[in-house]
């Protein structure tokens, strides 16, 4: 029996996403808005060690960028609470 493997990184990260439009005639961009959310990293996993543990090298090394970092325990808890199934009779 083989161990379960993962195809993408499952580490929850805080991401700031900027939505914008591009006018291809003028090259002008217009920002529509920004959104902040917690979601899985989603980076593809290539080597067998990464696929076994489900964490990409960047997340394992703790890399961060502006608007893209590992989620704090409080953010993870809030994300899991929001994703939990809701009971209709509650």
Give structural notes:
There is one protein chain. Strands 2-1-3 form a three-stranded antiparallel sheet. The protein has 90 residues and is an alpha+beta fold. The protein is built from three helices and three strands, in the order E-E-H-H-E-H. The radius of gyration is 18 Å and the shape is extended. The protein is 23% helix and 29% strand. The longest helix is centred in the C-terminal third of the chain and has 11 residues. A hairpin with a 6-residue loop joins strand 1 and strand 2.
For the report, how would you describe the main beta sheet? 3 strands, antiparallel
Strand content: 25-35%
Task: Provide the low-confidence segments as ranges.
Answer: none
| Number of distinct helices | 3
**Nearest-integer average pLDDT:** 89
Number of strands: 3
Strand order of the largest sheet: 2-1-3
Radius of gyration of CA atoms, rounded to a whole number: 18 Å
| SSE pattern, N- to C-terminal | EEHHEH
Based on helices, strands and strand pairing, what is the structural class?
A: alpha+beta
Helical fraction: 10-25%
Shape verdict? extended
User: What is the CA-CA span between the terminal residues?
Assistant: 41 Å
The gist of it:
The chain is about 25% helix and about 30% strand. The protein has about 90 residues and is α+β, with helices and mostly antiparallel strands.
């Amino acid at each position: 029996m083989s161990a379960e493997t993962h195809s993408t990184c499952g580490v929850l990260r805080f991401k700031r996403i900027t939505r914008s439009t591009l006018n291809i005639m003028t090259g002008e961009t217009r920002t529509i808005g920004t959104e902040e959310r917690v979601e899985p990293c989603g980076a593809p996993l290539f080597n067998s060690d990464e696929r076994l543990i489900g964490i990409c090298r960047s997340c394992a090394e703790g890399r961060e960028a502006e608007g893209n970092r590992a989620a704090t325990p409080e953010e993870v808890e809030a994300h899991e609470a929001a994703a939990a199934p809701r009971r209709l009779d509650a």
